[in-house]
Amino acid sequence: MLVGIPVEQSNSVIKPKDCAAEMSDYIVKVAEQRCKASFARVFGYFAPRLRSYALKQMGNEALAMEMVQDTMSNVWQKAHLFNAEKGSPSTWIFTIARNIRFDMLRKLQNRKEDICSDDLWPVLCEQTPDANEQSLDEQITLEQIGFMFEDLPLKQKSVIEAIYIDGKSQQEVADELHIPLGTVKSRTRLALQRLKGMLQDHD
Amino acid sequence: MIKYHPEQSQLTQFVQGNISPAEALIVSAHCDLCHRCRQFVQHKTQLIAAEVFDTPQPKDSLENYGAMLAAITQLPASETAPAAPDNKLNLSTPEPIATFTLVKTLELDGHQFTLPPTLQRIAAKTGNWSGLVGRLWQAPVELNYPGVANFIYMGRGGSVPEHTHRGVEYTLVLDGEFNDGINNYRTGDFVVMTDDNTHAPHSEHREGCLVFTLLDEPLHFTSGIARLLNPFSHLFFR
């Protein structure tokens, strides 16, 4: 079990602008001497205030404490990056806290790539590891796509038109044409494959 | 001269940490390029930091923190280089939790582009460049959080077919100039497009135009045959 270091109770009347110089000195001592007592002073002042703010912002005790811990860990580990000439300890620590906040949001929102093995991807583009190999002029124009579209079999064309030009859903198309949804899907797929094939022949 | 900036309300939300990480990324990249917005953010940060910390000692019992304090002081000092000599306040994540590789420049078609520091942190996750229709090149950037980011390069005379947006599209001009039929945008300009806007970007600039874009929904092409691109709009989205 970790033995807690007593936290210095800072005087509640002291405001950051009054103690900025003092806090700056502590942070410098942390940077230069890894001084735990100095860090405890900084921690004692900022951690509880940061927790109140984080709790208001995130409404969750566990997240708020995580933010406090990550922020104050950064202060301890990166004290050498603090430069009193650039700003007050409050501004510095607040900026760290905000970045921790964005890191936490990123983690919370991290989604596994919803992998759609979409074989449409290569249709209009070519992977070009060396950009210099392909001239910018050798690309497919919209007109060419138009011509290819006109070449599609009628059944496929009407499905593609309804979905991609009129913006209907596949179900709507199925209902209108009185065909099963599966047929709409397969016609769409065939049409797109055909377009893809035509684009490749174009090369 | 940068003419288009994020709204002050968005900059303030950025300072407070109240916008999505993807928005924060592009706002921060704009601030890298824009002295005015950088100043605003610095000033706002000072004010809000003072508000947050200029408070009486909260009444929670300090015993709760003893173990945390002890755990923190067990950590080794980080071995990063000292702060950059320039006087810029580091707006972006000082050090992300995960390690990253800085990529300072992008190369395309014989051109070399220097990236703003914020984007240098994510550029290592840039995929291959793909040639699209209309002298348009695109390289996706993997974010791992919602929002789809791409570098897009329009060669001279290059254009994107007219489109509207289902969600919000942010564009930051990194190099060169483009015009979308509404305005002319230059390096550093921050462009916000929503479903109220339909535009058709093109570049006539000698060196073309490199932009960084962020989308939360696919584009929707609006004019004529370009509507056929809608099934492929994930090209511009993903």
UniProtKB/TrEMBL annotation, chain A:
<keyword id="KW-0731">Sigma factor</keyword>
<dbReference type="GO" id="GO:0003677">
    <property type="term" value="F:DNA binding"/>
</dbReference>
<dbReference type="InterPro" id="IPR039425">
    <property type="entry name" value="RNA_pol_sigma-70-like"/>
</dbReference>
<dbReference type="InterPro" id="IPR013325">
    <property type="entry name" value="RNA_pol_sigma_r2"/>
</dbReference>
<dbReference type="InterPro" id="IPR014284">
    <property type="entry name" value="RNA_pol_sigma-70_dom"/>
</dbReference>
<dbReference type="InterPro" id="IPR013324">
    <property type="entry name" value="RNA_pol_sigma_r3/r4-like"/>
</dbReference>
<protein>
    <submittedName>
        <fullName>RNA polymerase subunit sigma</fullName>
    </submittedName>
</protein>
<dbReference type="InterPro" id="IPR036388">
    <property type="entry name" value="WH-like_DNA-bd_sf"/>
</dbReference>
<keyword id="KW-0804">Transcription</keyword>
<dbReference type="Pfam" id="PF04542">
    <property type="entry name" value="Sigma70_r2"/>
</dbReference>
<feature type="domain" description="RNA polymerase sigma-70 region 2">
    <location>
        <begin position="45"/>
        <end position="109"/>
    </location>
</feature>
<feature type="domain" description="RNA polymerase sigma factor 70 region 4 type 2">
    <location>
        <begin position="143"/>
        <end position="195"/>
    </location>
</feature>
<dbReference type="GO" id="GO:0016987">
    <property type="term" value="F:sigma factor activity"/>
</dbReference>
<keyword id="KW-0805">Transcription regulation</keyword>
<dbReference type="GO" id="GO:0006352">
    <property type="term" value="P:DNA-templated transcription initiation"/>
</dbReference>
<dbReference type="Pfam" id="PF08281">
    <property type="entry name" value="Sigma70_r4_2"/>
</dbReference>
<comment type="similarity">
    <text>Belongs to the sigma-70 factor family. ECF subfamily.</text>
</comment>
<dbReference type="InterPro" id="IPR007627">
    <property type="entry name" value="RNA_pol_sigma70_r2"/>
</dbReference>
<dbReference type="InterPro" id="IPR013249">
    <property type="entry name" value="RNA_pol_sigma70_r4_t2"/>
</dbReference>
Automatic annotation (TrEMBL), chain B:
<feature type="domain" description="ChrR-like cupin">
    <location>
        <begin position="150"/>
        <end position="214"/>
    </location>
</feature>
<dbReference type="Pfam" id="PF12973">
    <property type="entry name" value="Cupin_7"/>
</dbReference>
<dbReference type="InterPro" id="IPR014710">
    <property type="entry name" value="RmlC-like_jellyroll"/>
</dbReference>
<dbReference type="InterPro" id="IPR012807">
    <property type="entry name" value="Anti-sigma_ChrR"/>
</dbReference>
<dbReference type="InterPro" id="IPR011051">
    <property type="entry name" value="RmlC_Cupin_sf"/>
</dbReference>
<protein>
    <submittedName>
        <fullName>Anti-sigma factor</fullName>
    </submittedName>
</protein>
<dbReference type="InterPro" id="IPR025979">
    <property type="entry name" value="ChrR-like_cupin_dom"/>
</dbReference>
<dbReference type="InterPro" id="IPR041916">
    <property type="entry name" value="Anti_sigma_zinc_sf"/>
</dbReference>
